[in-house]
Amino acid sequence: MGWERRRWLRALGVAGATGVAGCAGRGTGTTGTATDGGSTTRATSVTETLTETATAESELLGDPDAETELATVYRDVQFRDTEDGRLLLDYYRPRDVEGPVPLVVHVHGGAWAFGSKGGGRFRRVPLSEGAAFASVGYRLSDEASFPGPVRDVVAAMAWCREHADALGVDPDAVGLTGESAGGHLSTLVAAAPDVSNLRPAGVSARAARASCVVSVSGVYDFGVEDGGVGGTLVRRFLGCEDQACEPQRTQASPVTHLDASDAPALLYHGTADRVVPYRQAERYVAAAEDAGMPVSLVTGEGGAHVTPYAGDWGDRYERRQREFLREHLW
C-alpha cells in the first residue's frame, strides 16, 4: 500500500492497526455497499484491509526477535542489496502505541571504519516518546568510500518510507540521529536531499528528505584540519589523498549544503572533545544561522567525545532532545 492508501486508512480510523506486532484481529469491520442510480458496488471491508496489512508486515519482518520494555524488536532486516553485500537494519516498534508513529533512523559512529548498528543508549528517548527506531548498518570505508555510505543511509530512509504501512510508521515524519561519524552522515543527508550524487539511483529527493536531525559530536566541515578531521581515517572515507581531496571535502561537508529549507537540527558537542573539536559544532551553527535554518546546540562544558547523557548537561540535553522530537515529528 502507498502513502495515499495509508492516509485513506487513517481517515477511516483503522490506521492504528497497522503496527508491526499483533495487528490481525485488533479491529473488525463489515462489508458495506454503495449505491448510485440503482447500481450496487461492494465497498472495501475493513477486516480485509487489516488482513492485507498484517500479511505485508509478516512477510516484510518475519517473527519478532525480542520484546523489551519499550519495543518489539526485529533484527537484521534487509533494506538494500549492494555489490558489497546485503545491508541490514534493526527495527524497534514501540509497544502499546496505536496508529502510524514517527520514525527515527539512527546512524552509528566509528570513524566511518568501525562500529555496527544497534543504537544502544540512543534508542531510549525516541522509543519512550512513542516513535519507532531503525538502526542502520551502512558500508564502512574498507568496503565503500564516499559517497557510498551516504547513499546507504538515504536508501534506508527510502526503504522505510516505501514500507511505511507494514512498519506502522508515518512516512511524512522521519527524523535522523547519529553520533560522531554517524552524526556527520545524518546531518549530510538532512542537508542535501536534492544532491543527486548523494542518493542511490531511483531514489527521489522527497524520499531522502528528513523532518529533523539530531547529531552528537559530529563532523560538519572537512575543509579545516581539526584534530582527527583530515587524518588517515577521513582520507580513507573520502577515498582520496590530500592533493586530490578538495571536491570530496566540499561535497561531504554538511556546512556546504545548508539552506533555509533544510530540516531543523539539534546538536550536542563537548568542549573537551579531542576527537572532533567543539569548533566543528560552532561552524555548523554559524552556517545554519547564516542560511536561516533552525538550529540548536547543547554544549557539554568539559565534555569529551560522544557524552550527551553525562555530566551536568545530561538532563538538560535529554529534555531538549525530547522537546525537539515532539516539535518536529508529531
UniProtKB/TrEMBL annotation:
Region feature (Disordered): 20-45
Ranges of residues in domain BD-FAE-like: 89-283
Keyword Hydrolase found: yes
Keywords attached to this entry: Hydrolase
GO molecular function, one term: hydrolase activity
Keyword Ubl conjugation attributed: no
Compositionally biased tracts (Low complexity): 31-45
Name used for this protein in its record: Alpha/beta hydrolase fold domain-containing protein
Organism: Halorubellus litoreus
